[in-house]
Amino acid sequence: MTGSPPTALRPQHPSPRSLRGLADEFGFDVRGELGDLEVTGVGLSSAAARPGDLYVGVPGRNAHGAQFAVAAREAGAVALLTDEAGAALATDAGLPILVTADARAALGDVAAWIHRTADNPATLFAVTGTNGKTSVVYLLYGILRQLGVIAGLTSTAERRIGDEAVTSSLTTPEASELHALLARMREVDVRAVGIEVSAQALSRHRVDGLVFDIAGFTNLSHDHLDDYATLEEYFEAKLELFQPGRARRGVVTVDSAWGERLARESGIPVTTLTTRADVAADWRLTVLDEEAAYTSFVLEGADGRRLETRVPLLGWYMAANAALAIVMLVDAGYDFARIAEVLERAGGIDAYIPGRAERISGDRGPIVYIDYGHSPDAFLQTLAAIRRFTTGRVVMVFGADGDRDTTKRAEMGAIAARGADVVVVTDFHPRFEDPAAIRAALIEGARAAVPDREIHEIADPREAFRTALALADEGDSILYAGPGHEDYHEVRGVKLPYSAREDSKQALRDAGWLE
Ligand SMILES: CC(=O)N[C@H]1[C@@H](OP(=O)(O)OP(=O)(O)OC[C@H]2O[C@@H](n3ccc(=O)[nH]c3=O)[C@H](O)[C@@H]2O)O[C@H](CO)[C@@H](O)[C@@H]1O[C@H](C)C(=O)N[C@@H](C)C(=O)N[C@H](CCC(=O)O)C(=O)O
Ligand SMILES: Nc1ncnc2c1ncn2[C@@H]1O[C@H](COP(=O)(O)OP(=O)(O)OP(=O)(O)O)[C@@H](O)[C@H]1O
Q1: pLDDT digit string (tens) for 242-285?
Q2: pLDDT tens digit string along 140-177?
Q3: Edge to edge, what strands does the sheet with 358-359 contain?
Q4: Nearest CA residue ID for atom 36, ligand 1
Q5: CATH 3.40.1190.10 applies to domain 123-343
Q6: Does the beta carbon of 168 sit less than 6 angstroms from any atom of ligand 1?
Q7: Ligand 2 pocket check: which of 131, 273, 379 to mutate, most ligand atoms within 8 Å of Cβ?
Q8: What is the domain class of 358-510 according to CATH?
Q9: Which CATH architecture has domain 17-115?
Q10: pTM, entire model
């Protein structure tokens, strides 16, 4: 597998719209003849262009998209929307050109217009925060289905339309892809959609052209300090979601000072939620029991409403994620009594989250989790959750992303060394960095925190997992953090096939622990 374009889900029966009408609606400057041309789709990538598309050429880190206008035309695009610099690059591309000052900033509204996403929209839920976004979106999806609602989602792992799923590339799709996805969802009667909204999506206009019914916030901790100079800037990117024009109401977890500040500075009405006994909030979560297979909890409103249920997932934070999903549903108008009735049935919440503390081991041998956690706080929370029920040793296998926030590596190493009995440092996605240097930074952090911790350095992830497995026995747990649901290993621009889930299951079978 190499860097193939993401699979985009699009409406199957788009209604064409006049290009002249589009230019008039948005006041674009027109170069060339529009005649009676019509558009049926819109996109940012020449590789994903389809017949009838408006191709949008935006400047990027590596290139100006307008350079690829000829390839887009050859794939069937009927016109180009770009800025002045792009128009100069594409004069000979053989496409009529619509010109605007900032094509990326125009994209959301243009995509909404082409796909008519404001007509009969589903209820839209946005989830943001450093950790837990994917989990909350899947929990929303699961509970909605238990309520009998046809639901959709977009997450780091997958985009889902009812039962149909495709693997994601970006966490939050580009605006053109997002509006196409919503238009496709409307065709199959999806009535509620959970959308994972990264800070980058807010900074890069990916959720423009939408107003969410409810925006939810999980937490904020160290991550993405390659895209944002400081945590303050990262916070401000997230705060933008809690403003009129972006969302109508918010639900904010106020466990941390960041959450309290978000609730205070939000420009929309906010409902608060806490898991802490010492914090005042509209809703309070109390965890009752944390087991390897589930976490049970009580959710109580300040007005006396109460439900008791369980989530089939590891860790107190999955109960917090579930509580956030429930309060978001209540604020969107779903009846609390009906939610309680459905969730208080035996089994509780019915949700599966690919690659988030996903247990891949069977009934025998060490318990093995594959986890997408790749931030210091995710390591901390997952290790603590596993430690609670592990009678033997905790072995942790992990690496760190290349070409991404390098400042978190020492802390990741330190948390692993403090929380695990044995640490196996391996390669994750080195990308264009030297993998040995990434491992060295993690090991240095681990050694500085716990000098005598048992540490193994094994570059190949397949071999690293097998080493961890050889070191573990009945009663022990292995946390393999990083790859989660992913099915590739990215080295020097090439995505090599590798599924931590499938390969580690094979290793368990080879060791005789799994049928
Ligand atoms: C920093 C960033 O967000 N980059 C995104 C951006 O890339 P870029 O600006 O460098 O684009 P470029 O390569 O210069 O190309 C310019 C334009 O030409 C187009 N092009 C390029 C080549 C070609 O042959 N044909 C073509 O049409 C591109 O589609 C693009 O529109 O536009 C690309 C096209 O949509 C994205 O794939 C790319 O995301 C990259 C892969 C990325 O890693 N983004 C990360 C930082 C990100 O957004 N992460 C967040 C958070 C994840 C989390 O929560 O952990 C996310 O939401 O995923
Ligand atoms: N509420 C939470 N608080 C702290 N850690 C959490 C929470 N929820 C999940 N985690 C940890 O973070 C990891 C990633 O969870 P999840 O994928 O839901 O987060 P995310 O915000 O979607 O991250 P990403 O955008 O990178 O996918 C989990 O595997 C778990 O280790």
Answers
A1: 999 999 999 999 999 999 999 999 999 999 999 999 999 999 99
A2: 999 999 999 999 999 988 999 988 888 888 889 999 99
A3: 358-359, 367-371, 477-481, 394-398, 422-425, 454-457
A4: 170
A5: yes
A6: no
A7: 131
A8: alpha beta
A9: 3-Layer(aba) Sandwich (3.40)
A10: 0.89
